[in-house]
Fold:
Amino acid sequence: MRRLLLALTLLAVTTTPASAADRCQRHAGEQLLARSAQATVLANTVRSTARQTVTGCSRRTGRRRTIVVLDRYADQPTALVGLRLAGTRVAYVMRFTDPYAFPPQILVVDDALHGGRRHDMGMEATWWTVDPAGGVAWTAGNGLMAWRPGLGRRKIDGRARLDQITLRDGILRWRRNGAPRLVDLSAVRPSACFWSDYGTLDIDFDRQAWPHTACLRATGRTTYLPQAEWAQVLDVEGQHVVFGWIQKVHQGAYLLNASTGWITTLTEQYEPNDAVVDAHGSVAWLHGEELWVRDALGTRSMPASGVGGLLRDDALVTREAGDLAVTLNP
Structure:
């Protein structure tokens, strides 16, 4: 009899509707954005003030927290592009009202119920997901990015067809050109560099320093890039980095080997339209109607048929659209 009573009690607990314990009730004008077992996220847009308030609510206690207050154009229905919720952690993309803002919208990570956990990624996102531990993964352009507390923003993959992306318990899974890939973000070793907020799993970049710097995470070896008014990373693979630069009326591109600090000039007459580098440090870049290649066979050019940016699959370089295909010789 005691076993029967225990079984009936357990059955009653497990079959109780989740809504019975949900203390989050929508106020007038609120719209439900997301719900998890722990939290509900709601939005309220007041047209007279052109403001939108996003609120998190504990389903257990009913306690509320304002996540963010967004300003929007009066004729815009929302300043929130989208929001994801996992446990109590949220990741959302917000659009700026300033037409000159760059980027025009950014990804933000926060917590629906607890303060002090907001982190602005400062980057756009076309797709994103979040896990209950607060990690987030997103795609921007042709790249896969990830962020986790203590790890910072990392470019995980790119220059390929990336799909079937999932993030759960710190483990990021995806397919690269159909082949499965996996990274345990929670197991990435700490960086030996002084700063480690942005970069790849191999290299940290300090974009606030002058001149720009790159640091190999495994050893802490730091390379100061040549002085430039403006520089951007065009592609990274392992310890190799291609970056374009502008200095007054001059512009060009360099190849950096972060493990040795060796910098090679690719061009000083122009900045490439696009560039890719492989694990051996072989490079291909676009300039006008030409594709330039620098590998073990030397430097050479060929017609750049097709349109769009460059893609790479190991040593094979192609273009987003067209029949261009070149195999780099390591």
Remarks:
- Residues 226-327 form one domain.
- The chain has a mean pLDDT of 88.
